Amino acid sequence: MNLLKHVAIIMDGNGRWGMKYKKSRNLGHKAGLNTVEKIIKETIKNKIRFLTLFAFSTENWKRPKKEINFLFRILEEFLTQKTINLNANGIKLKVIGNKSPFSKKLKKILANSEKITNNNKKLQINLAINYGSKNEIIKTIGHMKKEKISLTEKNIGKNLYTKNIPDPDLLIRTGNTKRLSNFLLWQLAYSEIYFEKKLWPDFTNKDYNKILNNFRNLKRNFGAI
User: Fold this and answer.
1) Is 60 a catalytic residue?
2) pLDDT digit string (tens) for 34-48?
3) pLDDT band at 1 (very low <50, low <70, confident <90, very high)
4) Of 34, 37, 140, 164, which has the most beta carbons under 10 Å away?
5) pLDDT for 48-91, tens place per residue?
6) Residue 73 sits in a domain of what CATH number?
7) Pick the catalytic residue: 12, 167, 169, 202?
């Protein structure tokens, strides 16, 4: 059976779910937080060490300002309320992405959550916010040139946001959309990819475990026969 160290998830479909059931995209984003908590618990049960969640992309700034403000507000509330629980459950939070455009308040909350949970080992959640893989790769290569680090595959991996983290074994995208949306393009080179029809708020532990079990029973060749 294949060992699962790292699962990455594109949590797509919150806005569509909100419009379908609540006539509000924002209420869909709020409902999506319930699924986040369930999947975190199920990830721990499955003894998976790393979970990367795509929460806000560099392209998401194109959305209406009211929706963006709401997304950041519920993120602030979630971390303010849940960081103590994350810490008590042995969960480490790491933010990947460009934090510079965020408000002072959000930066402070993110830094505080990372600091409080820094020494935890049970599960590391990589929260991708204002993240874009192309930007990450360009930034990494620029840094390496400045520091005169040779441009090798190994060295690029050591200088990405995800340095010291194994590449995802598995990517799940909900929302019945089949694309990567500029997410972990370097890191997903040999990941197995599952596109799930359900919108993120409808995604259940049963759905998650079905995908995990399918992965465990795959024959993975990595270019060999």
Assistant:
1) yes
2) 999 999 999 999 999
3) confident
4) 140
5) 999 999 999 999 999 999 999 999 999 999 999 999 999 999 99
6) 3.40.1180.10
7) 12
| Residue 196, in any domain of the structure | yes
Query: Is the residue at 94 inside a domain?
Result: yes
φ/ψ of 22, rounded to 5, equals -125, 0
Three-state secondary structure readout of 81-138: HHHHHHHHCCEEEEEECCCCCCCHHHHHHHHHHHHHHCCCCCEEEEEEEEECHHHHHH
Note whether residue 137 is domain-resident.
no
In a domain, 159, yes or no: no
Q: Output the DSSP codes for the chain.
A: -----EEEEE---HHHHHHHHTS-HHHHHHHHHHHHHHHHHHHHHTT--EEEEEEEEGGGGGS-HHHHHHHHHHHHHHHHHHHHHHHHTTEEEEEES--TTS-HHHHHHHHHHHHHHTT--SEEEEEEEEE-HHHHHHHHHHHHHHTT----HHHHHHHSTTTTSPPPSEEEE-SS----TTSSTTTTTT-EEEE--S-GGG--HHHHHHHHHHHHT----TT--
Catalytic pick among 2, 60, 87, 89: 60
**Burial of residue 147, with CB atoms counted within 10 A of its CB: 0-12 exposed, 13-18 middle, 19 or more buried:** exposed
**Rounded-to-integer distance, Cα 145 and Cα 71, Å:** 35
Residue range of the domain that includes 124: 6-132+168-216
Number of compact structural domains in the chain? 1
With a threshold of 0.70, does the pTM exceed it? yes
